[in-house]
Design goal:
Length: 578
């Protein structure tokens, strides 16, 4: 008890502690459990940044933990010299509680060290921040966002000069410098007015918007596919109270879509996301209002983006007239199939075009690419690893980036951004839907045609939320049990391969033969079964969750769904017994 209580009293006794944080601390002064959770550890700065619940404490996101993260980044930039300081840092933010304030606090911390900063005057999507880093030739970028997390969260992500989230040695160096900061309450910052007068803090209005919008138009593969149906093609779009509305709407209009209806109740930024339980386009409930709009106007396509507009969800009409929310794997397969087939027709598809996906993303994409002689490369979960590969591709002519995507609704089509880009994805999936409409088909019909050709792939994800210190221990116990006592069979199908990404080792169960996995270390386990199905366990790096992924491929949609349910039932029973 002593350690967390010492930290708590240190905060409580700080004379000039932020008034709002002091009020919050005093409000829970008798709640030992909550105080312990707020102070028992320091909010972890991972390879991409920090994310946490807003509030007072070392294990919460607040002005002081933001200062600590920014101080570590500042020390890293200072170490790399005057040129790095002069090129500076671009800072953007989404609609969450305290986002504008945190963005300014980052600038004030960096400015104290003489580092140039560029701060957007108002909300911008994460992919535009990624674009802006490269467009302004900055040394780094910072995005204040907690992506699709609940309203009580916020976070900070750090980007390198390539526009991708920092990874590898750079991330390790920044993490070490953040962790070396001894007192988050004593970090000096500069005055923002003084920084503006000196020119070290520059506000960005619209000077990046137009170049980004122009780049977005390059996503179009076949303009005639849009033009042929533009007069009667109807899109309903919801930003789910986030940052996507102006940019997505402008992008769709710029490439020829004339009828784009915005869900009015969810149009304006709202940090409480008051019309949804979760601002996550992965969840069907987030589409309820969009579906009502779609029914009214008989829309061809429903689109949704998360608060910082880096994830996109899609709903399309099924033969029974009901809208169905597609999975991230299905959306990725539709866009990939369209890109390949259209580029093939136009003779612009090169033999060294490569598909990038994560280890928990459907194998359907690999099958489609392989059918056209193209290579697919797997990365660890997290779009920063896809961006890393794109950056590697620019160093040689060996590979050409075609598309990168992950099951969690993240996609990138053109590499002018180096993080998942829901704005790009909205434009491309709309073009794909327009292409099918000209054939008197829906996106759902297109998906069924792909399944008929390549097999009925089905995937699912179970996210088990286990909050607090006890939850973290439970998550650790679950992954440890599966690692040290692995299942021999799942749903009566033999486990034939076990991949342990922490050990970076693949084992063929029958022969006990082992081989190295050439990916960075990650606390992930994957089990491959004798029928091609697979199960993967991964603790989340940004939320108190353990995620369990499932993938199957059978000869019919019904048999795939039945097998999927059997896998889930078996694994969840094992989890409950831990």
């Amino acid at each position: 008890m002593g350690l967390w209580k010492n930290a708590y009293e240190k905060w409580l006794n700080k004379p000039d502690l932020d008034a709002q944080l002091r009020e919050q601390l005093e409000a829970v002064s008798g709640d030992t459990k909550q105080l312990e959770d707020s102070f028992y550890k320091e909010l972890e700065f991972g390879t991409g940044g920090i994310r946490g619940i807003l509030g007072p404490g070392t294990n919460r996101l607040n002005t002081y933990t933001i200062h600590k993260a920014a101080e570590g980044l500042a020390q890293y930039i200072v170490e790399h010299g005057d040129e790095a300081k002069a090129r500076g840092v671009v800072i953007a933010y989404d609609c969450r509680h305290k986002s504008p304030e945190f963005a300014l606090e980052v600038a004030k911390t960096l400015g104290y060290h003489g580092i140039q900063t560029y701060v957007f005057e108002s909300l911008r999507p994460t992919p535009e921040l990624s674009f802006a880093v490269r467009y302004l030739q900055a040394y780094a970028g910072v995005m204040i966002t907690a992506s699709h997390n609940p309203p009580e969260y916020n976070g900070l992500k750090v980007y390198g000069e390539d526009g991708g989230q920092v990874i590898g040695d750079i991330a390790d160096d920044i993490v070490a410098k953040v962790n070396a900061v001894e007192d988050e309450l004593a970090i000096p910052t500069a005055d923002d007015k003084t920084l503006k007068q000196s020119g070290l803090l520059k506000m960005i209005s619209d000077q990046v918007d137009e170049p980004y919008l122009k780049s977005l138009q390059s996503v179009v593969v076949n303009q005639s596919a849009i033009d042929d149906v533009a007069d009667d093609f109807k899109v309903v779009y919801t930003p789910i109270h986030g940052t996507g509305h102006p940019t997505v709407k402008a992008g769709l209009h710029a490439i020829g879509f004339k009828h784009v209806d915005i869900v009015k109740e969810q149009e304006q930024p709202d940090p409480n996301f008051s019309t949804v339980e979760s601002p996550n386009p992965e969840e069907a409930a987030a589409f309820e209002m969009a579906i009502a709009y779609g029914d009214q106007i008989d829309a061809d396509l429903l689109l949704a983006t998360d608060p910082d507009a880096d994830r996109m969800g899609v709903a399309v009409k099924k033969p029974d007239g009901q809208y169905d929310v597609l999975t991230g794997n299905q959306i990725g397969a539709l866009m990939l199939h369209y890109l390949i087939t259209e580029k093939k027709k136009q003779k612009t598809l090169t033999d060294h075009a490569v598909v990038l996906k994560t280890i928990v993303t459907s194998e359907l994409g690999r099958d489609i690419a392989q059918a056209y002689g193209l290579k697919t490369i797997d990365t660890l979960t997290g779009f920063k690893y896809i961006a890393e590969k794109i950056n590697e591709f620019t160093q040689t002519d060996e590979h050409e980036f075609l598309i990168g995507y992950e099951e969690s609704y993240g996609y990138l089509i053109r590499d002018f951004a180096r993080d998942k880009d829901a704005v790009q994805a909205c434009l491309l999936i709309s073009e794909v839907a327009a292409y099918y409409k000209a054939k008197d088909m829906t996106l759902y019909d297109g998906l069924m045609a792909i399944f008929k050709t390549y097999g009925y792939y089905q995937e699912s994800l179970e996210s088990i939320r286990l909050a607090g210190k006890e939850g973290a221990e439970k998550i650790s116990n679950i992954i440890s049990t599966f690692r040290h006592d692995p299942p021999q069979a799942i749903a009566n199908h033999e486990v034939i391969v076990i991949e342990d990404y922490e050990a970076r080792e693949r084992m063929y169960v029958q022969t006990r033969e082992k081989e190295a996995i050439n990916l960075p270390t990650s606390n992930v386990l994957k089990y491959k079964l004798d029928n091609g199905a697979w199960v993967c366990l991964r603790p989340s790096g940004t939320e108190p969750l353990i995620k369990i992924y499932y993938g199957v491929k059978e000869a019919s949609l019904e048999s795939s769904q039945n097998l999927l349910e059997a896998l889930k039932k078996d694994v969840m029973a094992r989890v409950k017994n831990v």
